[in-house]
Request: fold
Amino acid sequence: MRRSRLISLVATTIALFVGCQASTAGDTAGIVLTASPTRIALGRDLPAVDVWSYGGRVPGPFLRVPHGGRVRVRIDNRLPVATTVHWHGVRVPNAMDGVPGVTQPAIEPGTSFTYEFVAPDPGTYWFHSHASGSEQVERGLQGVLIVEDQDPLPWSQDVAWVVDDWRIDRRGQIDARFDTGHDVMMDGRWGNVSTVNGRTDHVLEARPGERLRLRLINSANARVFALDFGALPARAIAVDGTYAEKPFDPRGFELAPGNRLDLDLTIPADWRGRSIDVVDTFTGRAAPIARIVVADTAPVATPSFAAPTGTPVAVDAFVNAPPDLAYRLAGGGMGHMGGAWTLNGRAFPDAPDTELPRDRPAKIRFANRSRRIHPMHVHGAFFRVVARDGEPAVEPFMRDTVFVHARETVDVVLVPSLGGRWALHCHVLEHAEAGMMTVIAVP
Ligand code: C2O
Ligand code: CU
Reply:
């Protein structure tokens, strides 16, 4: 078979699985994603909503590649506005990071851009627009990237849930008032409709005895979720892509915008015909967001294997060390939206790069001087939380996004391993738009 034929065959095979959750280990050679206006239904009795999507669905495709596989995705921009794609959490070469004005010019309407990189780390990642994110991500420009382990474990099912919220207006459409003064000054845009994989009525079907890997991704502009699986035995095994040092109880885990949490769930053998609502408890009022329905069939044998774990990282020496870099997170000033969010008093793009040496651990302090929440995200590197409010708080896992609560100070340690200009910003997208972003330059 000629090479080009083969490539297009591979591409079609993968494209067939795009959006569904079958395992499609293989390179995503030649995937073309059109970013364009589309209409979708969020639920059975809800009117169709005008969205912007990758490939006609929200969330966009669930891409799966093997560890070390090549991701090559051409974005055709058929939107009325310029856009980019950022591969959240993925340590891509800097030129593929998708930050307009920092790593590339935005992709103008009617033009294309091809993102290409080798999937560097296994785990759960996602991709989203990084141009006017507060509008474009809310309108639907988001998708999933799963990088498979070298030897995938024999889960009964390996599925992803994109947890999102939407602000729907009286006409049943996405409220077109973005970056309102209220949203900017407060905790960003919190919606009035929550969805899992783009549906208000999402159902995960399982059989008694099954062992599932469930990958949670918070793609909301600003809402934090804390999911409760009730009586279902659940262990958290990975955060923001990488495996935790040891599995932990996920109850109360605050899944902030940008965060991922992978769960190891076993459906008890005696749960025949049972179903449970998964509820979000973050606001203190339990809100069901999806349902797990267990088939009324005889139990299957539960796959038995030790839960995967990550390598411990020695960070204790940093707990009390002075920070190499400290950011004061505060509101103020008069940005283009009437209010600004700043890091050390500067609102992006009016902020100088900060240099960090390559391959050397750096301790970064996020000191929140405001009463608002700031899930701080760093591009191009994972980090470890080592202290909160000056107290040792070493987490047994890596992150790329950490929820900094009102008035809280969080210390993290990261090792920049890739050269380039890496964005660091609040993942409350309204805060980022209002200036809460800066660049770390790694030589
Ligand atoms: Cu998910 Cu810079 O963002
Ligand atoms: Cu913020």
